[in-house]
Design goal:
Elements (H helix, E strand, L loop, with lengths): L42 H26 L5 H32 L5 H19 L1 H9 L11 H25 L5 H20 L9 H42 L26 H4 L2 H6 L15 H9 L4 H21 L1 H23 L6 H25 L5 H27 L2 H16 L10 H18 L1 H10 L5 H21 L5 H15 L5 H32 L1
Helix pairs in contact: 1-2, 1-16, 2-3, 2-5, 2-14, 2-15, 2-16, 2-17, 2-19, 3-14, 3-16, 4-15, 5-6, 5-15, 5-20, 6-20, 7-11, 7-18, 7-19, 11-13, 11-14, 12-13, 12-14, 12-18, 14-18, 18-19
GO molecular function: phosphate transmembrane transporter activity
Protein name: Phosphate transporter
Pfam family, one: PHO4
């Protein structure tokens, strides 16, 4: 007597809110958890994050008083600390949430896991590699020599910029719009500086280094284009060379099932029945649309491989179909074993290069070019071998599950790397202006350069994580499921492409927008899958346009209020 075998049900039609894949359980979306009792089911996590944030605020305030000395204006220092941490909090709610949207939307990480990853890698990126970009933001926007203002006025400009940018980011986050924190802080600085110059008669538009802003504006345009192009090319190659065999094998499965035991079915079926195979292909269209092999690797557009497969399958006998499926299954596992390891090794080299050549240098471990290259070669070989062994171990799994697991692991590492790169680059949007305020309060003068203490980077990194947890869910939902359906393979491609661009920008000291880069990468993936949600991009693009003037307007009002107080 044969043993009954369980089969995976036919997957549901993929929608932006449904990330179910063949052979896999339904994945949770990035929606906020359902409230249950006081603070909901995540009460302990809420309390833990809240206590962590409170402890950080208290400890950092005490440190700030000790750092600036007894001569500093206490009320001004407290406001500066509050504005700086509030800005970092909202960077976490918008930019960090934007960074983890693909991972959470793909079901690779839960919201809690994203919080833990962010806590480690965002703070590490800020502390180890967040230095060079900070100077660009602090002194590269406003011409200090042209600003004939006293140190107090300069400090008030930076404080107003922090609050103006933070307020706009909070509003955008509540709407679920992933906007640029770089746009926001630059807008805040420009608005506050121009207003101060106009009020005091010490300057005006000439206070702003428009050439620097022009260069940054060019990078804003290039950011989504580079992110989209790199993701389009990378995911397109993954789709053609790795996912397509998996997709064909699943589409050739009897009755739409993806099961390794499908080839061992009893041969009692009526192979000669001219309609014996029809039931398996009446739903081929649904299979194609259900992101089999997690990427909709075959589309049904006329002349496309999906349409060609469906047409050929309709004329196959059951025996021929099973023979064809065995060939495709073999090709699919071969792709996972032979093509994924070099891809993973290349990704590891790109992501490790930032740490080897920049992060370690900032902590006093200056590695030579030759030594760094040797380390990268060792990392590449180690990842190549480990991924090969892992792929071989997945041969007993169904095609879709093997593909899901392989790319899920790879996406975990890209998510960590993107968190590190984000902490290295975008923490400057809060740390830069705050470092200027802290330096003025400590020295009583405007310095050309201001050291950024490690305590500032660490405290602001923790504020990033807090913002991700408390207000980041709507942005995660927008990026993870709203713009296009995300799965581990597409999420991996988007994150790797975006992280590469962001890391290079951080090395060059250019404060580009990681938001624009990642959104461009997500849309690049959507274009490959013919599933980009351009309607949702309309309000997002509008928010991008108004971010700089909105933050500038708020910063202008805030600086007037601060000048009235002080």
């Amino acid at each position: 007597m044969g043993t009954a075998r369980m089969r995976s049900p036919l997957p549901l039609l993929l929608t932006p809110g449904n990330t179910t894949m063949p052979g896999m359980p339904p994945q949770k979306t990035a929606d906020a958890p359902v409230s249950s009792g006081l603070l909901g089911p995540d009460r302990n996590w809420h309390l833990g994050a809240g206590l962590m944030t409170l402890a950080t605020v208290v400890a950092f305030t005490i440190w700030a008083f000790a750092h600036t000395g007894s001569g500093a204006n206490s009320f001004l220092l407290v406001l500066g600390v509050a504005f700086g941490l509030f800005m970092a909090f909202n960077i976490g709610g918008n930019d960090v949430a934007n960074s983890f949207g693909t991972s959470v939307g793909a079901g690779t990480l839960t919201m809690k896991q994203a919080l833990v990853v962010a806590a480690v890698f965002e703070v590490s990126g800020a502390v180890l590699a967040g230095g060079s970009v900070t100077e660009t933001v602090r002194s590269g926007i406003v011409d200090i020599d042209a600003m004939h203002v006293d140190p107090l006025s300069f400090a008030l400009i930076m404080m107003a910029a922090l609050l103006g940018a933070a307020v706009w980011l909070l509003l955008a986050t509540k709407m679920g719009w992933p906007v640029s924190t770089t746009h926001a802080i630059i807008g805040g600085i420009v608005g506050a500086a121009v207003t101060t110059g106009a009020v005091t008669g010490t300057g005006g538009l000439g206070m702003v280094q428009w050439g620097e802003i022009g260069q940054i504006a060019i990078s804003w345009v290039l950011s989504p284009l580079l992110g989209g192009l790199s993701a389009y090319l990378l995911f397109g190659a993954i789709k053609r060379h790795i996912l397509a065999p998996s997709a064909r094998a699943i589409a050739l499965g009897s009755r739409g099932f993806d099961d390794a035991e499908d080839d061992d079915e009893d041969e009692d079926d009526e192979d000669d029945d001219p309609r014996g195979h029809v039931a398996g292909y009446e739903r081929v269209t649904e299979l194609q649309q259900a992101a089999f092999a997690e990427s909709a690797a075959l589309d049904l557009t006329p002349g496309g491989p999906g349409a060609e497969l469906a047409e050929q399958a309709a004329h196959l006998s059951k025996k021929d179909r099973k023979a064809a499926r065995k060939i495709e299954r073999k090709a699919a596992y071969h792709a996972l074993e032979k093509r994924v390891p070099p891809l993973a090794a290349g990704a590891a080299v790109l992501l490790a290069a930032m740490l080897v050549f920049k992060g370690l240098k900032n902590v006093g471990l200056d590695i030579s070019l030759g030594g760094g290259i040797l380390m990268l070669v060792m990392i590449a070989l180690g990842v190549w071998m480990a991924t090969t062994v892992f792929a071989r171990a997945l041969k007993k799994q169904s095609i879709s599950r093997a593909t899901f697991i392989m790319f899920s692991w790879m996406q975990v590492f890209t998510a960590c790397a993107f968190a590190f790169s984000h902490g290295a680059n975008d923490i400057a949007n809060a740390v830069g202006p705050f470092a200027a305020v802290l330096d003025v309060l400590r020295t009583g003068a405007i310095s050309e350069e201001a050291a950024v203490p490690t305590a500032v980077l660490a405290a602001f990194g923790i504020a990033l994580v807090s913002g991700l947890w408390f207000v980041g869910r709507k942005v995660i939902h927008t990026v993870g499921t709203g713009l296009t359906a995300m799965h581990p393979s597409s999420g991996f491609a988007a994150e790797l492409a975006a992280a590469t661009v962001v890391l290079l920008a951080s090395v060059l000291g250019l404060p580009v927008s990681s938001t624009h880069i990642l959104i461009g990468a997500v849309l690049g993936v959507g274009i490959v899958n013919h599933a980009a949600n351009w309607k949702l991009m309309r309000p997002i693009a509008l928010a991008w346009i108004i971010t700089l003037p909105a933050a500038a307007g708020i910063g202008a009002v805030v600086v007037l209020v601060l000048r009235a107080i002080f």
